[in-house]
Design a protein that fits this description.
Structural class: mainly alpha
Number of domains: 1
Number of strands: 0
Helix content: over 70%
Distance between the termini: 17 Å
Order of helices and strands: HH
Length: 67
């Protein structure tokens, strides 16, 4: 991937993280089963994981660009 593609990919990963967290957290309010902390924590973990991956993807790009 070239640097611009990597940057766009990292941004989209963060967007997917936001959507996943939103769906797993706020989607519970529309469910008949009620609020579950396990799904909330899973949604936050997915979001944090995707944000972390995007961060390292951008950081790796910066380190390669300096060489």
């Amino acid at each position: 991937m070239n640097p611009k593609q990597r940057e766009v990919f990292a941004e989209k990963l963060m967007d997917v993280g936001n959507i996943a967290a939103g769906a797993l957290i706020f989607g519970q309010f529309f469910s008949e089963q009620g609020f579950r902390w396990g799904l909330t924590l899973f949604g936050l973990a997915v979001m944090a994981g995707l944000y972390t991956y995007a961060y390292f993807l951008l950081r790796f790009e910066d380190e390669r660009g300096d060489q």
